[in-house]
Specification:
This protein starts with 22 loop residues before the first strand and ends with a helix. The chain has a two-stranded antiparallel ribbon with strand order 1-2. The protein has a two-stranded antiparallel sheet with strand order 3-4. Helix 2 runs parallel beside helix 4 and helix 3 packs antiparallel against helix 4. The protein contains four helices and four strands, in the order E-E-E-E-H-H-H-H. The protein is mainly alpha-helical.
C-alpha cells in the first residue's frame, strides 16, 4: 500500500499526489509511490514507461505471454484422433512436448499439471497402439 504524505516537504507520487513518493523512475525520473513502483531486474520503472517499453518492444525481460505446453501437448495428442494415421507422429510428439514443458513456467492464471499427465498417457497409448500394429503386421 502507498504511504500517505505526512509532511509538506515530502515528495508526492506522480500518479497519486496524496501518497508519499518512495523512489524515482529510473527511465523518466517521475516520483513513484510503493503502489506505482514496478521493479524489473533491479530498476524502478513507472507504469507509463513499462507500457511504452511493451508497445515498442524495448522490454525484453517483460513476460507478457507464455506457451502453455500442457495444453499444447494435450491438443497434439487428441486432435489427430480425428485422422488416426497422423497419430503415428503426434503420439510421440505429445509425449515430448509434455516432458519438455513440464519445468517451464505455467499459466499466470493458475492451472495444474493434469493436462501434461493426460497428454503423456494418450501419447503413450497412441505410440503403443502403433508399435502393436506394426508388430502384428511385420510378424
Amino acid at each position: 500500500m502507498a504511504e500517505a504524505i505526512v509532511a509538506p516537504e515530502d515528495a508526492g507520487c506522480f500518479y497519486h499526489p496524496q501518497s508519499r513518493a518512495a523512489v524515482p523512475c529510473d527511465l523518466c525520473g517521475r516520483f513513484l509511490c510503493a503502489l506505482c513502483d514496478v521493479e524489473l531486474h533491479g530498476q524502478h520503472i513507472c507504469p507509463a514507461c513499462v507500457e511504452t517499453g511493451r508497445k515498442k518492444n524495448l522490454m525484453r525481460h517483460l513476460d507478457d505471454g507464455r506457451v502453455l505446453y500442457g495444453r499444447l501437448a494435450l491438443m497434439v495428442a487428441v486432435l489427430p484422433l480425428l485422422f488416426w494415421p497422423v497419430t503415428m507422429v503426434t503420439g510421440p510428439a505429445s509425449v515430448f512436448l509434455a516432458i519438455y514443458g513440464w519445468s517451464k513456467p505455467r499459466s499466470l492464471t493458475g492451472g495444474g499439471r493434469a493436462s501434461y499427465v493426460i497428454a503423456v498417457l494418450i501419447g503413450l497409448a497412441e505410440t503403443a497402439g502403433w508399435v502393436f500394429l506394426l508388430w502384428i503386421f511385420f510378424k
